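This part of the workshop introduces the protein records we will be handling. Getting from the letters to the C-alpha cells is the skill we practise here. The record below serves as our worked example for the rest of this section.

…
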Amino acid sequence: MGINRHTETEGVEVVTVDYPPVNALPSDGWFALADAIREAGRNPETRVVVLRAEGRGFNAGVDIKEMNADTGHTALIRANHGCFEAFAAVYDCQVPVVTAVNGFCLGGGIGLVGNSDVIVASDDATFGLPEVDRGALGAATHLARLVPQHLMRTMFYTAGKLTAQQLHHFGSVYQVVPRAELDAAAMEVAKNIANKDGRVIRAAKRALNGIDVQDVHRSYRYEQGFTMELNLAGVADEIRARFDDDLAAQKKEK
C-alpha cells in the first residue's frame, strides 16, 4: 500500500498509487506521490513516466476522514500543500507523464490528470469535481484543461461527471480501452515516447510548458484561497457533517 515506483522498461518509469479502498490520499500520500514523480523525472535515463493506480478507481481526492479528525486546520493546510505539490510534480516533471485512468477520477484526481501530458482511460472511467458538494473549491484550473470553458463551469457548479468517451470526444483523453487493456495501452504510448531521443523529449516538455497560456500553479493556488475561506467561516465543516450524516443514513438503509 502507498506510492510505488519501478522501471518498467528502458526509459519508462511507472508510479503506482495504491491506497485502498478508493485511493483517497492522506496528506502524506500526496507528498509521497510528488516525490516519486519528481525522482522519476530527475533520473537521466527516464524519458517518460506512467502514472497509474491499483484498485476500484484512479483517485477519489483527499482523505475526508483525516480532515474530520482534525479539530483545527492543520490537516486542511497539509492537504492543500500536498495536492499542490503532487499536481505541480506532474506538470513540472522533466519528461512527459502518461496517466492511465481506471474507474473514478474525482477531486484531486482531476488535478493529476489535468496536468498530465497524455491521458489513457478505461471504458468505465468517469471524471468529476465533487468539491462544491463537500464545501470546498479547487482543481477547476485542471478541469479547464480537459473540457471547454462553459462545460467546466457547469460541471463545477453541479458536481457532475463526464465519461472517458466524452473526454475522448473533446480530445483531452487520447485513448479509451477496456479496463483489462489499460496498462498495456498506456505502456504502448509510453514506449513510443521512450523511443525518442531523451534530450529532445526533455526540451520538448520545457518548451510546451513555456508556451502554456495559463500559469497552472498560480491559478490553482488562487482557488485554494477560497477553500481556506470556506473552512475558516465554518461552512466546510457544516457541509462535511451533512455529508457524513447522509453516508450513515445510506448505510442504515442497506
Observations:
- Strands lie at 2-9, 12-18, 48-53, 97-101, 104-106, 118-122, 126-128, 161-163, 175-177.
- The longest strand covers residues 2-9.
- DSSP finds eleven helices and nine strands in the chain.
